[in-house]
Amino acid sequence: MCDICTPGPQCGIDAYIRDGRVIKVEGTPGFPGSNGRLCTKGAANRQYIYREDRIRTPMRRIGLKGSDRFEPISWDEAYRQIAAHLNQTKADYGPEAIAFVCGYPKWFRPFLHRLAHSFGSPNYITESSACHQAEVMSYQCIFGCLAQADLRDTKLYVAWGSNAFANMFPLARRLMEFKEQGGKIIVIDPRDTQAAQKLADLYLRPRIGTDGALALGMANVILENRWHDMAFIRRHVHGFQAYQDYVKGFDLKTTERITGVPGKLIYQAAELFARTDPSVISPSNAITHRINGFNNHRAILSLNAIMGRFDRPGTLIPVTETFCHSNGGFRSLEERFIDETRPRTERRAVGFDRFPLWGELVDEGQGMHLTSQILSGEPYPIRAALGFGVNTRMYPDSRRFVRALDQLDFYAAADIFWTESCRHADIVLPVSTSFERSEVKCYSGHLINYTAPVIEPVHDNRPDADIICDLAKALELDDPLLCSGYDRCLQYIMSPAGIQDWEAFRCHDGPVHVPNSRPYQAGSTFAGGLHTPSGKIELYSERVVKYPHLEPLPVYRDSSGPEDPEYPFVMCAGARLPNAIHSRIHDCTWPRSLRSRAAADIAPSDAKALGLSEGDTVRISTRTGSLLAAAHITLQASPGEIYMYHGYQEADVNALIDTELLDPYTGFPAYKQFRCAVQKVEDEA
Ligand SMILES: Nc1nc2c(c(=O)[nH]1)N[C@H]1C(S)=C(S)[C@@H](COP(=O)(O)OP(=O)(O)OC[C@H]3O[C@@H](n4cnc5c(=O)[nH]c(N)nc54)[C@H](O)[C@@H]3O)O[C@H]1N2
Ligand SMILES: Nc1nc2c(c(=O)[nH]1)N[C@H]1C(S)=C(S)[C@@H](COP(=O)(O)OP(=O)(O)OC[C@H]3O[C@@H](n4cnc5c(=O)[nH]c(N)nc54)[C@H](O)[C@@H]3O)O[C@H]1N2
Ligand SMILES: [Mo]
Fold first, then answer.
1. Residue 255 needs a FRET pair 20 to 30 A away by CA distance; which of 326, 523, 604, 617 works?
2. Cα separation values, 238 from 230, 244, 302, 383, 436, Å
């Protein structure tokens, strides 16, 4: 299965092998979801797995940190050294002084989480500190559980901050079919995207990050026209009165002034959504990448609440995260697997004190506070870390993150490629790609798949899950299950799936249907009771109200901060490009050739004012840092706004972001909304 992006679509790949090498990849015909297709990134898998900079053997640093002076060592020696350092740090500072950190890869996460627990540390931290958890928290605060749009039965879908053509092509295809079958789509995006152009019956183009106001303005239209579902609200919704009072401040004129969306369009969108039943709005996680992101997301979700668009076909229906953030239609023992070795420690995970709502809802440290805690040693020191697929460029003010790595007494990095994090590690471990390993994945349609490797490891690499189980042994942890290896643990975790013949399942080519999966039953979430403090859908959050510095209503505040003549533009960094995925394929020549230079999208009027032509070099700067990029002049960007993709080594946009620009509810960084300056740079002739 393709692992270029996960847990996402998980497309089937046919790999053609000659003399032990992959010579060609194609989508697997008939594979659920992808049905024989691959995206631009997936088609580049061959270049990905044979990248020149793959780590070839375990390595030990012999020069200064960041110096690239390493020597090869054996796996046993690497394990021995990691275990010795981690156990020493534990003896000196306590187990919580070691952080177990993971980047975008997902497939082995419960194993890393259990390793942290068995070791005694609460500090398991992942990229979810900046990816998916803020959304989950928003759903939890309002509905008590994560939910998703039921596209099969809806009549109107609002793609709010979502461009599936770039970020998930099977979804884009589904939406095209949906439209062909008469479904209506509203797209809301400050960028004039492919989704806006190809899918939208109605397109709203707000200023970056003003979505909270837009949603409250739409709510005001709905309430004034009495289109809301009062019977549903009386029965199921908490805090309606307070919400209604707050929403009154967002009349059409005010909302138009804040968002830049014409009042007439705001009215139309509200009417179309409210008067089409079933209809559903599902805001993307792009909404959460800014200071007021959590509340913007909640304001949008609240529209579903006042219209009763929850727990019935065609609306928001609850999702079970079966395994590694994917839904296989059943409850695995993943939670128990993680929980049963949880340490009894007084120490709270990184970031819990600073982001108490996060601490209450999320079972992992808030990684956006990791740098600060390493550098300050407060409230307790973090002295060592074990990182799997940790990319320094994911972190705001990424150079500060590198400084934090350098301050650790010990850092071990496991990655496929030789990255900046590896250069600052003490021990580096080479890991396998999905072509070289076996793994179990669950996904929608109630499917489960046990893949097999198609090639021998390209170099002396090992799968992450095996490394974790081996480390449990090397660390001499009292955890016989984890020490028994990946497959035995899986059999335990997946036992509720009802698979009778595990061996047959393991050898089966392609996904199988989960025997014990259960189809969604309309109304079952209400019947089981909502997991919110009031037991109702909360427009006014009783979870949030406990924290005096947070506001229980989904209030709107400007995330850009006060205007600043020195930094007149607002940057939105990271809107997905179809040919890029974070840092991982910028170095593959095919996808890279589609946008060969790191480019900043800028509106034609701004380009003119700055005297820019297409491809000119610009310097983009903030108080935190600056970079050089190529100007890409496009109508996709509105005046005053700049868009740029992240993860480039030579133009790392996250190096411009102040680490303190964090949403106080979720700790999420301001990737998609911060002020910057843009200047033309005369190329040296
Ligand atoms: N400005 C800006 N920054 C962003 C975002 C944004 O929108 N804007 N998006 C954020 C989001 S949503 C996310 S999810 C993060 C992702 O950010 P990252 O976690 O940085 O994502 P990647 O660069 O894909 O992968 C990180 C590392 O994992 C390695 N890797 C790949 N597969 C494996 C594997 O199986 N095992 C191991 N051990 N390593 C592997 C890769 O080589 C790479 O070095 O970026 C965030 N950063
Ligand atoms: N090709 C590709 N696909 C990917 C990824 C990738 O790196 N590359 N990453 C994967 C990952 S880790 C994740 S988390 C998902 C992310 O999935 P999404 O969050 O859906 O993806 P983004 O492209 O970040 O944002 C979607 C749209 O939101 C818009 N947007 C940005 N700011 C705002 C705003 O303030 N208001 C509104 N209304 N819209 C806004 C952007 O212009 C963009 O078109 O994508 C996944 N898919
Ligand atoms: Mo993400």
1. 604
2. 12, 12, 11, 45, 51
The answer to whether residues 184 and 280 touch, using CB atoms and an 8 Å cutoff, is no
Residue 5: count other Cβ atoms within 10 Å of its Cβ: 19
Distance (angstroms) between ligand 2 centre and the Cα of 246 equals 29
Burial 92-107 (b: 16+ CB within 10 A, else e): ebbbbbbbbbbbbbbb
Residue 635 · residue 604 · CB < 8 Å: yes
pTM of the model: 0.98
Instruction: Out of 10, 11, 167, give the residue to mutate to test ligand 2, the one with the largest number of ligand atoms within 8 Å of its CB.
Output: 167
pLDDT tens column, 331-340: 999 999 999 9
Distance of CA 571 to the CA centre of its chain: 19
Q: Which ligand is nearest to the CA of 574?
A: 1
Q: List all residues 6 or more positions away from 433 whose beta carbon is below 8 Å from its beta carbon.
A: 3, 48, 49, 416, 458
The helices-and-strands tally (H runs, E runs) of the chain is 25, 26
Contact criterion met (CB below 8 Å) for 653 and 642: no
Mean pLDDT of 409-420: 97
Cβ < 6 A, ligand 2 pocket: 5, 8, 131, 160-163, 166-168, 188-191, 193, 206, 208-209, 211, 284-287, 572, 574-578, 580-582, 672
How many CB atoms are closer than 10 A to CB 624? 20
Residue 532 phi, psi (nearest 5): -115, 160
Element (H, E) at 427: strand 427-430
Q: Which ligand is nearest to the CA of 9?
A: 2
Q: How far is CA 327 from the centre of its chain?
A: 16
Ramachandran angles phi, psi of 381, nearest 5°: -75, 145
Whole-Å CA distances, 172 to 175, 446, 645: 5, 21, 20
pLDDT digits (tens, 9 = 90+) for 562-593: 999 999 999 999 999 999 999 999 999 999 99
Q: What is the pLDDT of residues 287-328, one digit of tens each?
A: 999 999 999 999 999 999 999 999 999 999 999 889 999 999
Protein residue with least CA distance to atom 23, ligand 1: 583
Nearest by Cα to 427 from 412, 414, 407: 412
- HSE-CB at 322 with a 13 A cutoff on CA atoms is 27
The partner residues of 310 in beta bridges, in order of sequence, read: 316
Ligand 1 nearest-atom number relative to CA 289: 7
Please state the atom number of ligand 1 nearest to the C-alpha of residue 575: 7
- Paired tokens of 333: 């023992």
User: Which ligand 1 atom is nearest residue 654's CA?
Assistant: 1
Please give all residues whose CB falls under 5 A of ion ligand 3, grouped by chain where several chains appear.
Answer: 131
* Spacing, Cα 286 to ligand 3 middle (Å): 9
Pocket test for ligand 2, best of 284, 300, 301 (most atoms within 8 A of CB): 284
The ligand whose atoms approach the alpha carbon of 417 most closely is: 1
Residue type, 684: E
Interhelix angle for 211-224 vs 240-247, to 10°?
110
Q: Are 469 and 489 in contact (CB under 8 A)?
A: yes
Cβ–ligand 1 distance for 289 under 6 Å, the answer yes
Whether the per-residue pLDDT at 7 is higher than 90: the answer is no
Which has the closest alpha carbon to 351: 323, 370, 324, 371?
370
